[in-house]
Structures are given as structure tokens and as C-alpha cells.
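Hi Y.,

Following your request, here is the sequence exactly as I used it, all 164 residues.
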Amino acid sequence: MARTHAAVASERDVLARDTAPAQQDGARAWHSDHYNEILRGLGLIAAAFPTVIGLIAAAKINWSLDGFNSPAVRVAGMAFTPWIAVATIVGGVLGLLAAAGPGRGAKLILGAIYACGGLAIMITQPTIDHVTVTYRYGVMTFLVGFVLVGTGMLMRTTRSVVTE
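Below is the corresponding structure, written out as C-alpha cells. Let me know if you'd prefer a different format.
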């Protein structure tokens, strides 16, 4: 089915109007992109917390003693064996990647995994390498997951314009 020149021109005008910065009477407009950027920033802050805690723990571990069999260290009231510190860093970096991305899927999936893992830790307080993973670690993990899921759910998938 052939489109007329007028229909193509009309579609082009609509596209240009929808993608141009919105200004009404000199007022600055907020696009949903700005809203999503704020949510991504919130997710980044949440995911940065376990990343930084894990990095501090890894820095405090005396790796020269026995490598991954070195004794645990305490950071923010939580015990970290070398394996727990590395897992915390990896999980935090994955959280940062999910939070920084423009899509919702990674935030929702990784956030749900984080939240479920946090609940499991809070309920069971497992022992890894003779070190009990504390309730506080579970709370931290759950909260990061909660924020990631929340930011994923609140992100707008369509572009909208709200004027101030």
C-alpha cells in the first residue's frame, strides 16, 4: 500500500514535534528521560553500597597469609572471608551495571535475585568458611534488591512530557 506524500510529511512533522525539546511559554519541560535518569541514579547509589563495602573488605584482607583461605575481616559490622568479599564485589558490580542500563528488565531480574538472596540470608544466616553471614548482610542485600526492583518498576517506558 503506497503512502501519499502528505502522509509521509505528516508523520515526519509528528516525529520532529515529539523528539524536539518541549517548551511552552518559555517554561522548561521535563521529559520522562529525566525521570528515568533520577531512578537510575538512585539504583546506582544503592548498588554502589555493597560494591564499596566489598572493596573495603578485600583491601583489609591479608592476602599474603593464605590467599583465599585468609582469615575473615570485619567491615560495617559484617564478617567477610575472601570469598564473601569477592562475591560482594561481583554482585555489586552486576548491580551497578543493571542500575546504569536504560532498560527495566535487568533491574527487575537482578533486583529480585538480590531481594530473594537477602531474605534467605536473613532467615538462615548461613555459615561460609566457618564464618556466619550476619543478618545485617542479608538486610543490605535485600535493600539493594528492593531499590533495584522499585526503580525498574517505576521507570517509564514511553516518552512523556511534563511541564513545570
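Residues 14-20 have pLDDT under 50 and may be disordered.

Thanks again,
Q.
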